[in-house]
Amino acid sequence: MSETKGDSQAKSFTAEEIGKHNTRDDVWIVISNKVYNVTNFLDEHPGGEEVILENAGKDATNDFDDIGHSEDAREMLKDYLIGELKGAPPTGAQGAKGSADSHLRSQQN
Q1: Which of 29, 37, 42, 56 has a CB 3.0–4.6 Å from the CB of 49, allowing a cystine?
Q2: Terminal Cα distance for the chain, rounded
Q3: Which one-letter DSSP state was computed for residue 59?
Q4: Which region, left, alpha or beta, applies to residue 96 given φ > 0 means left and ψ of -120 to 50 means alpha?
Q5: Angle of CA points 38, 39, 42, to nearest 5°
């Protein structure tokens, strides 16, 4: 499976697949049913990496919209697009072992 930035051929990912990408070294999020690999954006995010890590492997649509991101921020997402969500959105309970939140807390400590 190719994970090329800005890949024009949309790939589909299930919640289970997305949920596995929930560590600082491998961060995928879903926004409006589109899947983004934002691993390389963590250090650049003006709001800090923590807010992205809290949503790693999950649907971040509500948090993204609630913050009121600029049109420029929405345009930047295109650089990290890797595909589309297939089926129900990830909740954080998917993935290898335990929830994404508990896994992230152990990574940060």
Answers
A1: 42
A2: 32
A3: B
A4: alpha
A5: 85
User: What CA–CA distance (Å, rounded) separates 18 from 94?
Assistant: 8
Token code pair at residue 57: 């492997």
> How many C-beta neighbours within 10 Å does residue 22 have?
27
Give the C-alpha separation, 12 to 109, whole Å: 33
Tokens standing for residue 68: 């009121």
Residue-wise pLDDT tens digits, 22-66: 999 999 999 999 999 999 999 999 888 999 999 999 999 999 999
Which residue type, as a one-letter code, is found at position 98?
A: G
